[in-house]
Specification:
- It is a single chain.
- By secondary structure, this protein is α/β, with parallel strands linked by helices.
- It is 29% helix and 27% strand.
- It has 9 helices and 15 strands.
- Helix 5 packs across helix 6 and helix 7 runs antiparallel to helix 8.
- It is elongated and about 70 Å long.
- It starts with a strand and ends with a helix.
- The mean pLDDT is 91.
Amino acid sequence: MKIFKGFEEARGIRNPVVTTGSFDGVHIGHKTILNRLRLLAEKYDGESVLITFDPHPRKVLYPDSAGKNLKLINSQEEKLELLRKAGLDNLIIIEFTKEFSKITSEEFVRDILKGILGAKVIVAGFNHHFGFNQEGDYRKLWLWREKYNFEAEEIPEQEVQHEAVSSTKIRKAISEGYIQRANAYLDHYYIIMGKPESYGYENSQYPIKLYKIPVSDESKLLPAPGIYAVSAEAGPVQAKCMAIINPKNENEQEVLIHMIEKDYLPYGLTATLYFHKKIHGSIDLNDHKTSAIRLKTAKREISELIY
């Protein structure tokens, strides 16, 4: 996957099949769009292109309301990894500013998608809006397709067990600890990526070696506090783990893991945690007696799980 920081860098893509959006979570609906991009790129001897934005538009347009406390399913690093796995050819990352937000939908299509990129096909997801005041939609793309010489296609709404999928619903499931529900919406495991650090917590009743997985992106959404069954991957090491989402204070949480099958994680390499299931609720690691019992029980349960 080629990554471009701006439209001018991306000139020369062959017969671009383009879509736009934040694609937070790269969930099942996003994957349907990406799969369609790939098929259309094959049809037109072209390449798939996603235009995405950083920071999230809500954080720029509504910093004191909708964007103020917005948490995202993926950090930028995680989203890039998921898009690579989805088979995207080209990713264009645009710095979203108030000035950029004033570009009308027709200007965006005429001057950027067609004018700079030379889009062959423009694909829009169900109910997707773009341009100044979100005035652009698939209906307008359909009306402009002959005027600006491109094909337009709409992807219908996706459902999981007859429930419409959205990034908002996935964020709610994660924040409440319903990881299996979130995974179904995502069509992959919820992940956290970071470089392991030693944590060094142990007590006499139940010694346990923990690693801390630092989360550098303050916008990254973490699950509800508790103990989770996860699998970890870092370089050559793959193993079952216990993850503890530990509240440090009212507004901050930390991610700790204990290896079930291995004794170590390699330092200096990025680890990816794949969340499978919530095992227990929040625990207080400073309460050695109670936490020791819960951790021991959780470790046994996770060891017996098949995943």
